[in-house]
Amino acid sequence: MTAIEVDGVGKSYTGRKKRTDALSGVRLSVPSGGFVSLLGPSGCGKTTLLKCMDGLIPVTEGEIRVGGAPITGPGRDRAFVFQDFRLLPWRTVLGNVTFPLEGTVSSRAEREEIARRHIEMVGLAGFERHHPHELSGGMQQRVGIARALAVDPDILLMDEPFGALDAQTRELMQIELLRIWELTGKTVVFVTHSVDEAIFLSQRIAVFSARPGTVAAEFEVPFAYP
Ligand code: ADP
Ligand code: ADP
């Protein structure tokens, strides 16, 4: 089963004076339940492709299909995890994780039950009443992951989620992510510029070349987890 199909995608940003061709002719297929990394240097279009997959920005050319259907915008089948966490500072951990459920789950008790379950899954049980500024970077990203998982998406789109963390925390979070991936069976698309990180985490790596970004090579990681 294929979760995401990227079919001849091009993306140009057009400003008033300047046009940037960020992606051209990208083809990529992400298997259901797979862990695929988009690897390449800064500026090669990885984040752009991830945002297109989420429907946060439109493609200029080609098509992205999720579960066989062309996407038209963000959907509850996908959730995004940001490098800079993007938590709501005035809300508690619990409030951050219940936030995306507010449109769909009418019962507050039910929202909190779902949130607590995911807060526990990422190892933050006991921190429900804390605010983001009281937490370390690694803990804040755990909240980011819990918030993404809470809506029960099929697909997690992760944009250098551990890029802002120190090396030791990053390693810990990588192991945690693999545990969660195995536990939940989610499809993961993971953006990174670290070869080590891509090899450690993924089953499959799409290597980007720049200007305009395209998938230059794609390979299976021979000894992938689990
Ligand atoms: P990566 O994630 O690989 O670092 P990006 O997708 O962020 O690459 O960027 C790809 C190219 O598109 C870069 O040249 C970047 O400057 C440009 N770009 C990204 N976002 C925008 C934007 N909102 N407006 C104009 N240019 C952009
Ligand atoms: P990342 O670290 O994920 O590669 P960047 O730091 O390059 O992201 O970009 C941060 C934000 O700025 C993104 O939302 C990106 O789309 C936007 N951006 C990047 N390059 C440009 C650009 N040349 N013009 C306008 N916005 C840009």
From TrEMBL:
Pfam families hit by this protein: ABC_tran
Transport is among the record's keywords: yes
Listed SUPFAM superfamilies: P-loop containing nucleoside triphosphate hydrolases
Keywords: ATP-binding, Nucleotide-binding, Transport
Domain ABC transporter: 4-226
Entries under SMART domains matching the protein: AAA
Annotated signal sequence range: none
Name this polypeptide is given: ABC transporter related protein
Organism for this UniProt entry: Streptosporangium roseum (strain ATCC 12428 / DSM 43021 / JCM 3005 / KCTC 9067 / NCIMB 10171 / NRRL 2505 / NI 9100)
Lineage: Bacteria, Bacillati, Actinomycetota, Actinomycetes, Streptosporangiales
